[in-house]
């Protein structure tokens, strides 16, 4: 019973948190927890303590690696820059192209939302047109609304 149960009459009786004919399947989902606090990054299922990624673009132990993705941060960088600081590549088209998220300004980086909330959350650090770093978070809630928090 792979040390996770007791053999009785040639059948394994598994200890709590283990299942399978040889008690070799862990029910612990902690190894499947992604950095955003979601099981398998919301892109897979946790089976026996291992992520089975259902979105083919994503891979890795917690379905967080995507070689072909631009990334949430890079994707929204120009819109956050024009909405928050009125500059960047989309400055002229900001009101047409960049109204797809709610924006909240915060005083400092420690005031940004932290992982552990129910919505998937990305922490971003991007360079602006003046070669300065700016910081923001991007999350999508259960209603499909995008929320950006940006450091002033």
Quick gist of this model?
The chain is built from two helices and ten strands, in the order E-E-E-E-E-E-H-H-E-E-E-E. By secondary structure, it is mostly beta strands. The longest helix is centred in the middle third of the chain and has 14 residues, at 72-85.
- How widely separated are the two ends? 57 Å
- Rounded to an integer in angstroms, the radius of gyration calculated over CA atoms is 21 Å
Given as residue ranges, the uncertain stretches (5+ residues, pLDDT < 50) are none
Count of beta strands: 10
What would you say the CATH architecture of the largest domain is?
Irregular
**CATH hierarchy, class of the largest domain:** Few Secondary Structures
Query: How does the helix and strand content classify structurally?
Result: mainly beta
CATH third-level topology of the largest domain: Hormone receptor fold
The domain count comes to: 2
Task: Tell the overall outline.
Answer: elongated
Please give the count of helices.
Answer: 2
> How are the strands of the largest sheet arranged?
7-10-9-8
Strand percentage: 25-35%
List keywords for this structure.
152 residues; mainly beta; Laminin; two-stranded antiparallel sheet; 10 strands
Question: Explain this structure to me?
Answer:
The protein has helices at 72-85, 94-97, and strands spanning 5-8, 11-14, 18-19, 25-26, 44-47, 50-53, 101-106, 121-127, 133-140, 146-151. By secondary structure, the protein is mostly beta strands. It has two domains: 3-63, Laminin; 67-149, Hormone receptor fold. It has a four-stranded mixed beta sheet, with helices on one face. The termini are far apart.
